[in-house]
Amino acid sequence: MPRKASIVLALPRDVEQALMALGERLMFARKRRKETLASFAERLSISVPTLMKMERGNPTVSIAVYATALWAFGRIKSLPEIVDPLLDDKAIELEIARIKKRR
């Protein structure tokens, strides 16, 4: 039996909850489209057990699987927006603080 990566064993609770929410939303999207586990898994080129893990937010599922599911639902453009530098309030705050410090 393969060992779990140490990151999986020490996930912050917020990360666990976010993955569970993402998986649940992907499941709802699949069900709203009346797509079965088998047909959607086939479209993603993954097994049904992997799809079920993804829909439960299992952190061992590859980000490529989550990304492919977003692509299948026409939402892949939202993935890079997650870390858009223009929306990174903390980085902007730090940059402003550095500028003020130099004055």
What is the topology?
Layout (H helix, E strand, L loop, with lengths): L5 H4 L3 H20 L4 H8 L3 H8 L7 H10 L5 H4 L7 H14 L1
Text of the CATH class of the domain at 6-77: Mainly Alpha
Mean pLDDT: 92
By secondary-structure content and strand pairing, the structural class works out as mainly alpha
CATH architecture of the domain at 6-77: Orthogonal Bundle
* Distance from first to last alpha carbon: 58 Å
Main sheet properties: none
User: Beta-sheet strand percentage?
Assistant: under 5%
How many extended strands?
0
What is CATH's topology name of the domain at 6-77?
434 Repressor (Amino-terminal Domain)
Order of helices and strands: HHHHHHH
What does this entry look like structurally?
By secondary structure, this protein is mainly alpha-helical. It is 66% helix and 0% strand. It has helices spanning 6-9, 13-32, 37-44, 48-55, 63-72, 78-81, 89-102. The longest helix has 20 residues, at 13-32. It is elongated and about 60 Å long. The chain starts with 5 loop residues before the first helix and ends with a helix.
Give a short summary of the structure.
The chain has 103 residues and is mostly helical.
Task: Quickly list its features.
single chain, 103 residues, mainly alpha, 434 Repressor (Amino-terminal Domain), 7 helices, 66% helix, 0% strand, elongated
